Amino acid sequence: MGMTIAEKILARNSGRGHVEPGDIVRATIDKAMANDITAPLTVDAIKDIDLKEVWNPEKIVIVFDHQAPPTTVKAAEDQDTLRKFASQQEIQNIYGDFEGVCHQIMLEKPHVLPGQLVVGADSHTCTYGALGCFAAGIGSTDMAAVFSEGKLWFRVPESVKIQVKNRLRKHVTSKDLILKIAGDIGADGAIYRSIEFVGTGIGLISTSSRMTLCNMGVEMGAKTAIVPPDEKTREYISKKTDEDYVETHPDPDAEYAEELQYSALKIDPMVACPHSVDNVKTMDELEDVKIQQAFLGSCTNGRLEDLAKAADILKGEQIDKGVKMLVAPASREVFLRAMEEGIIGKLVESGAIIEPPGCTTCWGGHIGILAPGETCISSSNRNFRGRMGSPEAEIYLASPTTVAASALTGEITNPRDL
């Protein structure tokens, strides 16, 4: 019996010829990442076990992105602790304020490559699967074990194949596609499974759009989400590094716990309504929803193509006076390119507020806190009660084009109507 991508990577990194779903393996980690919120807990655990040296400083990445620059004394102290820890352990891959979201940085540099086993102390680590690797979020104390030994226990997950054919229509994005899938599967429909996105429809979308798909795998409970590497993957990596890697593809006779099929032509602009990511509706199913805030950014949709799509929707028009539109480029590199291409200028001219690269508004711990009774349309990945501020506020999730269209009109708007 053949193996899926997840099974092959876990088999190779655990030194086994073959694994099956349910097997328990101890696998070697290729790269490990922690951010300014999770890494302090990891460092505390390392101190508790009196670890003198990490297993491999070159394979560890630390990123300040959740509260960067710090907005509290505690956040500043945590970052100071992490800088000292990195210096002591000779960890060179530490990224400070204004560098961007950890997941974007991991993919930009890139710190991950196809076929690798990567862990991050953040649930959206699954984003990296867009490059054809097994990437999974883990806890901070688990990360302490990785920093210590470079290995971690895994249960081999079942795999789900999601096949997408045809091309997405105008003003429909991969965010709409993944919201549709999340609505169908449910928030607990893929718990501890590996999702493989395949088909002609996946081949037609950009690497950035694949990152959006994989990013939200965890919103269905998945352990990891993966797009098999192809020519677009190779082109993306070749522009960033000449490091060798081994592509991993599923066997023709690999077994899947479930197989789903979608036609991109049938996907409409979608919205996830409060307070669950799988509470998904089409625009036609929504009643009039007034908004006070629009957020464009996050590890889901803060990349260059996302900002460009929003700027194209705004087209020099003015954002509704009752709406504050916040834009957070996913990284400094994205910010610079967006300035060079005039995208930032277009957004500012329309009335958008540009935030420093990072997580910012997405998690409610930095900029753009919602007041009771306020409603936000967001390009991020979670709309839990209290996620962006007051538990009496409401968050709707949508694509960058829908966010921009809604900012113009002051209510949730189908971008096709513009």
Automatic annotation (TrEMBL):
Cofactors required: [4Fe-4S] cluster
A Pfam match: Aconitase
InterPro entries xref list: Acnase/IPM_dHydase_lsu_aba_1/3, Acoase/IPM_deHydtase_lsu_aba, Aconitase_4Fe-4S_BS, Aconitase_4Fe-4S_dom, HAcnase/IPMdehydase_lsu_prok, Homoacnase/IPMdehydase_lsu, IPM_dehydratase_rel_enz, IPMI_cat
Gene Ontology molecular functions: 3-isopropylmalate dehydratase activity; 4 iron, 4 sulfur cluster binding; metal ion binding
Enzyme class, UniProt record, top EC level: lyase
Classification via Gene3D superfamilies: Aconitase, domain 3 (3.30.499.10)
CDD domains: IPMI (cd01583)
Gene Ontology biological process: L-leucine biosynthetic process
UniProt keyword terms in alphabetical order: 4Fe-4S, Amino-acid biosynthesis, Branched-chain amino acid biosynthesis, Iron, Iron-sulfur, Leucine biosynthesis, Lyase, Metal-binding
Cofactor annotation remark: Binds 1 [4Fe-4S] cluster per subunit.
Domain annotation Aconitase/3-isopropylmalate dehydratase large subunit alpha/beta/alpha: ranges: 21-285
Pathway assigned to this chain's UniProt record: Amino-acid biosynthesis; L-leucine biosynthesis; L-leucine from 3-methyl-2-oxobutanoate: step 2/4
Sequence similarity: Belongs to the aconitase/IPM isomerase family. LeuC type 2 subfamily.
Protein name: 3-isopropylmalate dehydratase large subunit
Annotated organism of origin: candidate division MSBL1 archaeon SCGC-AAA261F17
Lineage of origin: Archaea, Methanobacteriati, Methanobacteriota, candidate division MSBL1
